[in-house]
Amino acid sequence: MSKLFIAIYRLIEKFKIFSLFLLVVIVLISAFFASQLKLSEDITKILPDTDKINNMNFVYSNSKFMDKVVFNISLKDTTKSNPNLLSDFADRLTDSINSRFVPKLVQSIDFAPGQEEMMDVYNIVLNNLPVFLTEEDYKVIDTLILAKNIENTMATNYSTLMSPISFVTKKLIAADPLFFTPIALNKFKSANIDNDFQIYNRYFISDNKRNIIFLLTPTSTNKTANNNILFDGVDEIIKNLAKNDYADIRVDYFGNAVVALGNANQIKKDIIITVTLAMIVLILVISLFFRSKRTFFIVFLPVAFGALVSLAMLYIFKKEISAISLGIGSVLLGISVDYALHIYSHFRQHGSHSLIFKNLSTPVILSSLTTASAFLSLYFVNSEALNDLGLFAAISIISAALFSLIVLPHLTGIKKGRLETHSINWIDKVAGFNYSKNSTLKLGIVVATIVLFFFSKQVGFDADMMKNNYMSDELKQVEQRLNKVTNLSKKTIYIVSPGDNPDDAMENNNRTSKLINKLKDEGTIQNASVVNNIFPSQREQVKAINIWNNYWKINGEKVISEINTDAQSLGFRDGAFGKFEAWINAEFKPISFYDTGVINHLFLENFIIETDTLSAIINVVKVNNRDEDITKVYDTFNENQIAWIIDKRLITSEFVTILKDNFNKLVLISISLVFIILLLAYGRIELTIITMIPMILSWIWTVGIMGILGIEFNIFNIIILTFIFGLGIDYSIFIMRGLLLEYKYGIHNISSYKVSVILSGITTLLGIGVLIFAAHPALRSIATMSIIGILSVIFITFTLLPAIFKWLVTYKKGLRNRPITLVDFLFSMWALFVFVSGSIILSILSLLFRLVPIPTKAKKIFIHKLFRYLTWFMIYMNFVSKKIIINPNNEDYTKPAIIIANHQSHIDLMLMMLLNHRVVVLTNPRNFSNPIYGPALRYAGFIKVGGNYESIINQVKKQTDEGYSVVIFPEGHRSEGGKLKRFHKGAFYLASELNLDILPLLYTDKRKL
C-alpha cells in the first residue's frame, strides 16, 4: 500500500503544475454537480416506509386543519372582562394578518359562524331533519308530543308571535312549532371550539367574556423560514397595536407550527454559539500544538473535499438528498479530520514524507474502509434519510482519506537537514505514558466492564420523540394559560377512517364513531369532533328516513290533531300550521355533504379528504396528557384495525420500535463488515479480534453509563452511535499499527499514533461534545453520547489494546517463540476446563472412596488409572499437535525405580502419568493444599517435599514397596528454552539409599503442543 502512495507522491512532485490543474478541475466539477443537488426539506423522510407512516403522510398532506395555531386574546388583568375591547382588538389583529400574510404565509383565518350562516344551517337542517336524527332523539320527541307539552309549547308560540319578533322567527315557528330542529342543531356543538364558548361577533368568546379565540392556519408547519417571517410579523403587529389603545391586552398563540419554529430557532442558536466556541478553541489548540497558524485550515481541507465529492456523487446517483441527513452528516464529518491529524502528527515527529506513507497509508485506508462500512450499514435501515446519511458519510470519509494521503503531504512543507526535536507538551506526556503496564487500570477496566454490562441491560428505547422537543419557559406559560381557557392545547389524536370515495369513508366511519363515543362516555376522551355525529352516512340516512316515516305513521294524526285543537283555542287561524303537517309527511331523500352548502363549509369540509385514489374522514379527539388514557385510545383502534391513528407520538414510537427491532441487525451488519475488512487486511483472526475489542468494550461502557445516568436510546443519539463506532475502530487500527511496527521492526513509534488519537478526541469533543451546553434536549443528547463514547474508547484503546497485544507476543522473559494464536487459545481454554473439571471429580472420588469398603490398594490403583485416562484425554484431544513416544528399551515400568526427567512446563506431569499409571510424583506443599486437586494428590500417594529428602525417604520406600515408581525433577524448577539446568542430588540420594534404579526421561518440543 505504501509503495503505491509513495509512487503517486513522486509523480505529483514531478508534474506539480499538471497535478494542481487536475485537482482544481476535480474540485470545480464536484462543485458544479454538488450545486445541482436538490435538498428535500421533508422531515418525514427520516421516518421508515411503513403503512402507518404512509397513512400519516397522506393525512397531513391533504387535510386542511391539522396544524392550526390557536390565538387567545385576553386582558392582562384576568379578573376583568371587556368583550367589546377584545373583539375590537381581534378585528384589528386579524385584518392586519390577512392583509400582510394571506395567502403566501397564512392559508386561512377561521372565525366563528355569523348569524346569517347559522340561519342557513338552521334551514338546511329543518328541510332535511330526518337524516340528522338518531333513534335516541325520538325519545326526546316522545316527550315533546305529549298532549300537555304540546299545549304548553303552543301557548308559548302564541306569546312569542304576539311580541315584536322578526318575520324569520314567525316562519320557523310555523314550520316547526314543536321545535324538533334544535335537537339536531345541538349536535353541531361538538364541532365547536369548546363547550364553554359562545359566539360573539365573528369570534368564539368564553362564557365569562374574558377570552376571545380564533384559529390561524399557516401554509406549512415545517417551513421554519416562512413561519419565522410570519410570527415575527405577528409579534410586530401585536406590539404596534399595544402602543395605542390596547396596552392592557395580552395575546397568546400556540400550535405545532409555533413549537416547531421554537425548536428550529433554538437549534440554530445553540449550534451557532457552540460551534463558534468550538472553532475558537480548536484554532488555538491545533495552532499551538503544531506551532503553525495555517495548520488548522489545512487539516480541515480533507473534510471540505470529502463533503464536496460526496455531494457530487449523490447528485449523479440520486439527484436529491434529505436535508436532515445532510445536516447530521455534516456534524459527523469531524471523523475525517483524524486522517489529517495523523499525517501532521507523524510529520511533526519524524519530518519524513516516506515515513508518513510507510506508517500511515495502510491504517488510513483501512480505517476509512471500516468507518465507511459502519455508516453504510445505515442503508439496511428502512429510512430514506438514514440511507442518505450513510451514503453521504461513507463517500465523504473515503474521499477525505484519499485526499489526506495524496494531497496533504505536499502541504506539510519540508524539514531540511537534521530533524529538530519538537518541544514536549502535555499531549505528548499523556501519549507517552504506558497505560498498559498499570495493572490497576487493566483490572479496573475488567471490573467496570462487568458492572456496566449489567447496567446496559437497563437501557431502553424512548419511543416518545416529543420529549426531545424544546419549549421555552415563555411558550410553556402560554400553553398553561391556554389549558385553563380551552382544551385546544390538550393532547390531540386524529382517528381517520379511509375509503375508496367519501361515501365509502363515511360508511367506514360509522363504527369508528361508535367507539369514539364509547370512550367519551367512559371519560377517556375529553372532547371529540366526530363527523358522523353531525352528518350520517348514506346508509344511515336511509335508515333514519325510514324511522321518521314509521314514527309519523303512528303518531302523525294524533300530533296534528292536538296542534290544530290547541291552535284554535288560542285563536290561530285555520291552517296556520299546514306547513308542519306537510313537513312531517314529506318525502325525504338522502343528501350528500356537497348538498349541505354552509354546513359543509363550516363543519364538514375540514374533516373530509378526497383524492383521485383515496378518501378519508378525520375525527378529532382530545385526551388528557395521561399515558393510560392515550394508550387506551391507541389500543382501542389498533385492536379493531378499522381506522388509522394519526398521532406524532405514535408515529415516532413506531419509528423507534422499528429502529429497536432492527438495532441488533444494524450492529451485526456493522461488526460483520468491519470484521471482514480487518481480517482481509491483517490476514490473522487474532489481530482482527483484538482490534475490535476496544470498540466492543467501549460500546458496553457507553450503554452502561447511559443506564447509570438514566439515559435512554432515542431517534437522535442512536444515530451518533454509528459515529462512535467508527471512531472506536479508527483509534484501534492506528494503535495496532504502532504495535505491529514495534513488534516487527523494533520501531518505537506508538506515541505519535497516540498523539494523533488524542488530538482527534479533542477535536471531536470540542466539535460535538460542546453541544452539551445547548439548551435543546436533542443536541444535549447527541453531545452526552459523544462525550461518554469518545472518552471510553480512547481510555480502553490506550490501556487494553497494547496489553492484549503484548500478551500475545511476549511473556515475562521476552518475546514468545511464536505469538499466541486463536487455536492455541481455544485449546488452552478447553484444556483448562478439562483439567479443572477432571481434578474436581478425582478429588470428590478420593473423598468418597474413604467410605467405600474396598481394599485401599484397589481404590488407589483405580484413582491412578483415572489419572492416566484424564491425562491421555488432555494430551490427545489436541489433535493439531503430533505426539511421539520413543522407548527403545521397551520399558514397561513393572520394576519400581526413581524416574528423573527434565522439567519445562506443567504438562510434564501429565506426560509422565500418561506413560503408566503406577507412578507418583514428588511435589511442593502448595499443590497439596490446592482445593481443586489437592485431595486427589494426597489420596493417590503423591509425596510432599520441601527440600529435605531425608525426611521423605520412608514415604518413598512405602510407594516403591507397593510397586510405584517415583518421579523426581532433579533441576528443581522448570527450565526455559529447552536447556538443562544443574541437577540436584536428591534423586540420586534416594536411589542410593533405597537401592533403586534410576530411569531417565527426556521431554522435547512441547511448545508445539
Structural overview:
The protein is of the alpha/beta class. It contains 39 helices and 20 strands. Strands 2, 3, 4, 5, 6 and 7 form a six-stranded antiparallel sheet that branches. Strands 9, 10, 11, 12 and 13 form a five-stranded antiparallel sheet that branches. Strand 11 and strand 12 (615-623) form a beta hairpin. Helix 4 packs across helix 11, helix 16 packs antiparallel against helix 17 and helix 31 (750-767) packs antiparallel against helix 32 (777-809).
Could you outline the blueprint of secondary structure elements for this entry?
Layout: H1 2-14, H2 16-36, E1 38-40, H3 51-62, E2 69-75, H4 83-101, E3 106-110, H5 115-127, H6 129-132, H7 137-144, H8 147-162, H9 167-175, H10 181-185, E4 197-200, E5 203-206, E6 211-218, H11 224-242, E7 249-254, H12 256-290, H13 295-299, H14 301-317, E8 320-322, H15 323-332, H16 337-350, H17 353-376, H18 384-406, H19 426-432, H20 439-456, H21 473-485, E9 491-499, H22 502-522, E10 527-529, H23 531-534, H24 538-570, H25 578-584, H26 598-604, E11 608-610, E12 615-623, H27 627-640, E13 644-646, H28 648-682, H29 685-709, H30 717-745, H31 750-767, H32 777-809, E14 810-811, E15 814-815, H33 822-848, H34 856-876, E16 897-901, H35 907-915, E17 919-923, H36 925-928, H37 934-940, E18 943-944, H38 953-961, E19 965-968, H39 986-994, E20 997-1001
Parallel strand pairs: 1-8, 16-19, 16-20, 17-18, 17-19
Antiparallel strand pairs: 2-6, 2-7, 3-6, 4-5, 5-6, 9-12, 9-13, 10-12, 11-12, 14-15
